[in-house]
Amino acid sequence: MSDKTPQQNDNEEIDLGQLFNAIGRLFEKLFNFIGKIFKGIFTTIILILKPLVEHFKLIAVVLMAAAIIGYIVDKFREPVYTSSMIVKPYFDSKYQLVNNVDYFNALINSKNLKEISKVFEIDTLKSSNILEFEIEAGPETQNDLLIEYDEYLQDIDTSLVKDFSFEKFVENRDMLSSSIFSITAKSKSANIFPQLEKGFIKTFENKYSKKLKQKFDSIYGVEKANYLAQLQNIDKLQNMYIEIKTSEANNGKLQLSTGSLLPLSQEKVETKEFELFQEEVKIRQALKNLEEIKIEEQDYYDIIASFDEIGKKDSRALSKLIFLLPLIIFSIMVIAYALMNIFKFIKNYEK
To answer: Does the global pTM surpass 0.70?
Structure first.
């Protein structure tokens, strides 16, 4: 018994020693792995910066020359003017609007001045000044987004509501989810922009939007007639109740002669004037809401902000060659250097 105890203690000490050694080796490998990652990042940064440092003078001269050339070209080239129009399409005409913007840009790129002139009802000289159209979702407030979110929740399955937060809704929206759109036009002429509105107005009145509007007008007519018929019925009931109450008030207690000479009182007819009044208020409110929707959506579109009479110069940094040309040249140099090194690596790979 006494001989086994020291041997057992020695075995336990050996097991603990092996465990600590294993843990030590594990931490050593972990620290070595982390060290290799940092070393790899550092080496990559050095490899990127090394050619820039080695060829700094050449790169600086080339970029400076590109900036000077860009400045000279900017100085003498025709200025570009921009102006924006904010619109609110109805009856799903936004899809045709987005499609037409792409179509207009295709006409501009193909120099189809005749078709551009026909669309915008301007001469070919003016149409040659149009450079590009851009479209994006218009400005929306937080309140607008909350209203859209509430309408969206009413349309989806109730089981999905708790899993679809407002943040997720905003994140998943694309441009066509918006109800307001900003159209930006670019031109070499500063005063052409008001004349471009006609071309976009035609966009909103397409076959599909006209079909939806006819459907809306039909539904509006049916619902309005239904509400008016309900109000007529309520009015008849109210008049009937008034006649009953008037008759009861005039007659008082009607006494009927019986064999026992005891007067009997006629029971009053139960009427529901208050319930009728509540129903009338509800129907009139629904009719009011229907009329508001009709007024709001009686047109195919609303122009919230028109194109400016005179466009403003495009002063964005990336539209100026003094910044754009050096950036392009530098990108070409980086790509060329990378391709040269890849070619060298492939060439010497088997050696």
So the answer is: no
